[in-house]
Specification:
This protein is of the alpha/beta class. 47% of the residues lie in helices and 22% in strands. The chain starts with a strand and ends with a helix.
């Protein structure tokens, strides 16, 4: 389930405290975002149940969006503080999104296992 972020501090804490985070950036005005958000949530929670899902309203918290180079409505970012990995993943086509996110997770696991 997506956790809606209310402040920059909360966002930074979530990134620090969780090994893997997917942040979904969108606005209330983005109809495509509204349709894709539950599909992304279902896909990620099924395929990657331990991943923390964050929801950031870009129009309400523009400083978080700007700090993560989000200048359009619907974007997702995968964060791993452990592996120092930050990757933009745009979920326009869900099959491609799942494939790209899976590849990122595999790279994360390889990187993380080497550091431990």
């Amino acid at each position: 389930m997506f956790k809606e972020i209310k402040s920059l501090d909360e966002f930074l804490v979530q990134k620090e405290e969780n090994a893997a985070v997917l942040a979904y950036f969108s606005t209330e005005a983005c109809s495509v975002c509204k349709v894709l958000k539950p599909k992304v949530e279902e896909m990620v929670t099924t395929a990657f149940p331990k991943m923390q899902l964050l929801y950031v309203k870009s129009d309400v918290l523009p400083e978080i969006a700007a700090q993560n180079s989000v200048f359009t409505h619907q974007q997702s970012w995968f964060f791993s503080m452990a592996a120092k990995l930050f990757v933009k993943v745009v979920p326009l086509v869900l099959a491609n999104f799942r494939m790209k996110l899976g590849a990122i997770i595999r790279c994360f696991l390889i990187s993380f296992s080497r550091e431990v």
